[in-house]
Structures
1.
Amino acid sequence: MRKVALWLLAWGALFAAEEEWIPLWNGKDLSGWKMVGPGRFVIEDGMLKTEGGMGLLYYEREKFGNCTIRVVFKTATDPANSGVFIRLPEPPPDPWYAVHNGYEVQIESRGDDWHSTGAIYSMAKVMARAQKPVGEWNTMDIVLEGQKTTVILNGVKVLEFHGDDPVPPRRQWYEPVRGPRPDYGYIGLQNHDARSVVYFKEIKVKKHQ
């Protein structure tokens, strides 16, 4: 009986831990999500697939902060450019609003340290490279704690950034406008260009106590 009780206790703890994760995408349709821009996301074999030109698919039901956002993705082309937007203060009317008013956690295997997977695009560089080859699934955890952003890619901590950390000067019009971002904001996925094909199979969040 004691072994059974211990097994039930362990199973219950595991179930409770899994229950803490809240799926934001149901794997079937785009309920709760809204697309802006000319690009699009299509559903293919239970995955979200990027298609077309520049676009942004954002979760419109809730703002998130003090949480962990988990995104499971793979690239189908090399190079492939995409990103996860965080800390958007308002619903974005177009894709460029997200670039200039939130942070883009980059997906791009060939970029330099300021523009590779896990970096905050052009503002905070990665401390390690941990993206898997084309066709293999990657798990990226984005941890939001007040103004602190931590990115863990495939179990490797690749970035830690505080909102008041110094950032390099803005050099191009398409680079994000510098300035503060909120603790809580909308999140979204970037569709970058027609040649970049990226698949997403999980998007979920775990709220911190």
2.
Amino acid sequence: MALELKIQPLRYVLAVCEEGSFHGAARQLHRSQPALSMAIRDLEDRLGQPLFEKNHKGQLTPYGDYCLPRFKELVKQHDQVAKDLQYVAQGEQGRVTMATVPSVASRLMPEFLAGFITEYPNININLHDENADFVCRMVSNGEVDLGISSIWAQDEHLSYTHLFEDNIGVVLHRDHRLANRKSLQWQELEEERFIANGTSRLLHKTEAASLVDNNDFYISNMISLVAMLEAGSGITTLPRLAFPVDNQKLRFIPLSDPKLVRRIGIIKLTNRTLSPMAQALERSILKGLAGAGTRL
């Protein structure tokens, strides 16, 4: 049967060696000398060999010399494991994986994550940039701890905590005849070449559904979509957060009729407890990103 060692008696042995006497070790550890001596004798009984010379309290036996570096290593490993377990339990150390829609990843995550890693320097973040459907799929499959996205279809396995709303507008070339308008109604777009994208589904079940139903193109990739718009190949609708703000060739014009918003929130598994690190990230997201749409 393997010998089981308690850590506290090993600390007593190390203290005796450090102080040079049982009396000095007892004083350092704020323990009575008899209690310390008894604990070390019990350890010696369990080991089957004396650690200290009988007539020279504080002087190690040859067996004690053998044990000393091993006791030091064992105590060091114990303390490191205990510290790591505590840090992880408190959400201060470990790894978190998350997925967000591209607009959140590029517009909100850089500043948010800079603040988060300052507060939690020992937490490693893996961030995936995916479309809304894929974000939900990654959360559902357990590939990531958290998602920030919209939920387009109800899923009993996923929970949604709302963060903000993102207004939908029309995106078109700056030279387009409608580019100087303050707002647009869907009827004004009926004769335009419409380029549908992943967020265009927000127009479904509204009076503007025909714009999507009769689209000339469907482009899911944002880089390709922007290239088509810059070439003047058509118009599209996008959430404001998804609009490339530094783009000088395009204009974002709010859609006033119908007035639509994209709902963005935290997505996680309904019946799965988050790790302490993921809980810390979720708390920070709720504090830092709630209502972000009104600040855009």
3.
Amino acid sequence: MAEARDETRTTYLPAGMPAPTAASDGVDREFWEGARRHELMIQRCKDCGTFQMTPEWICHSCHSLDVGWHRASGRGRIYSFERVWHPAHPALKGACPYLVVVVELPDAGKVRLVGNLLGDPMQEVRFDAPVEAVFEDHEGYTLIQWRVV
């Protein structure tokens, strides 16, 4: 049986989780800085227009080195999901079950992002359901979560 959630928490994830950081080479820095600004930034090739996630220094499609960033709307559709019953990290022990979704972004070349689905962890999840990004601020970083709209 899942432990009761602390309803006074202001964040979805419990304390004790490691903070995400930009890669040491900085290739994904704009993604994380965008999240802190409450913007969903997706890498896009300036030559062929292909969107890509995860960020790289080279376009996955045309191999151009001229890649930049595009501000996506933050709206997507549930492509897949998993109801997590076994914690992936010790800090998540009391958070189970929780929902993890793969979200497809129609306005960003249908790239897909993984995140938590907010709300009741026992809610019915419908494939292709519309969702929107929710930015969860922490000290020093911001996470992107999702909620059904």
